[in-house]
């Protein structure tokens, strides 16, 4: 059931000490995320197949709580932790592009995720046209990291995905792939195709305001 998956993702974040990084107790962290459960029972799409890169939803923690470089260190796949060679300041330069509007909350749900198998070997410049034409949205850096935080198995050797929803004003796009057996956050040129990189997208982003009692 999707509500069980929601609980799994919450506990996964706690196991990785997201609550401590955010300056909260475990219970405070759970309480902050709890309103998102309502979305799961009301607007979540049908079951997908994570092994095929299709995921019903993913809990996203914004970089204001946990920065991209730190979040990558908390990713684990087959016993190996994630990494990035990008400087923290460089990662922070990448902001949501026009048309990508994030919920005004520190945590939200990314709905109906597709890691972009059908856009393998398609340049990011062309892939984003396809994504927009299908009324979908490209993923940001923090959203891509959230996907592999909860579903590290979707990142495969010779099959990673670009994150076209974040740009910094140059020709680079960030991407996630396997390097030396480890999940890596790096970048590629927007005009270059790669047989091993697709472009990830989502159907929507959903957030509910947290009201403390």
What labels describe this entry?
three-stranded antiparallel sheet; 8 helices; single chain; alpha+beta; 213 residues; 30% helix; five-stranded mixed sheet
Number of helices in the DSSP assignment:
8
Number of domains: 1
Strand content: 25-35%
Biggest β-sheet description: 5 strands, mixed
* Low-confidence runs: none
Spatial ordering of strands, largest sheet = 4-11-10-8-12
Helix content estimate: 25-40%
Radius of gyration: 16 Å
- The succession of helices and strands, N to C, reads HHHHEHEEEHEEHEHEEEEEEE
Structural class per helix/strand content? Answer: alpha+beta
Whole-number mean pLDDT: 92
* Overall number of strands: 14
Shape verdict: globular
C-alpha termini separation: 28 Å
Structure report:
This protein is α+β, with helices and mostly antiparallel strands. It has one domain. The chain is built from eight helices and 14 strands. The chain has helices at residues 2-15, 18-21, 26-33, 37-42, 68-73, 88-93, 124-133, 141-150, and strands at residues 54-61, 76-77, 80-81, 83-84, 95-96, 107-114, 137-138, 160-163, 166-167, 172-179, 182-189, 197-199, 201-202, 204-206. The protein has a five-stranded mixed β-sheet, with helices on both faces. The model has no long low-confidence stretch (mean pLDDT 92).
């Amino acid at each position: 059931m999707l509500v069980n998956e929601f609980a799994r993702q919450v506990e996964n974040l706690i196991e990785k000490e997201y609550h401590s990084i955010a300056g909260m107790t475990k219970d405070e962290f759970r309480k902050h995320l709890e309103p998102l459960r309502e979305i799961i029972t009301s607007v979540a799409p049908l079951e997908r197949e994570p092994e095929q890169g299709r995921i019903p939803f993913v809990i996203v923690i914004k970089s204001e709580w946990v920065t991209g470089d730190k979040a990558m260190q908390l990713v684990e796949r087959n016993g190996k932790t994630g990494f990035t060679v990008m400087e923290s300041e460089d990662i922070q330069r990448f902001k949501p592009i026009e048309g990508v509007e994030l919920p005004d909350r520190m945590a939200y749900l990314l709905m109906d995720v597709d890691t972009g198998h059908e856009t393998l070997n398609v340049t990011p410049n062309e892939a984003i046209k396809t994504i927009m034409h299908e009324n979908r949205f490209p993923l940001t850096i923090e959203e891509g990291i959230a996907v592999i935080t909860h579903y590290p198995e979707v990142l495969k050797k010779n099959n990673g995905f670009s994150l076209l929803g974040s740009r910094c004003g140059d020709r680079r796009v960030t991407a996630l792939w396997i390097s030396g057996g480890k999940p890596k956050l790096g970048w590629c040129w927007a005009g270059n195709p790669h047989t091993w990189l697709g472009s990830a997208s989502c159907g929507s982003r959903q957030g509910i305001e947290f009201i403390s009692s």
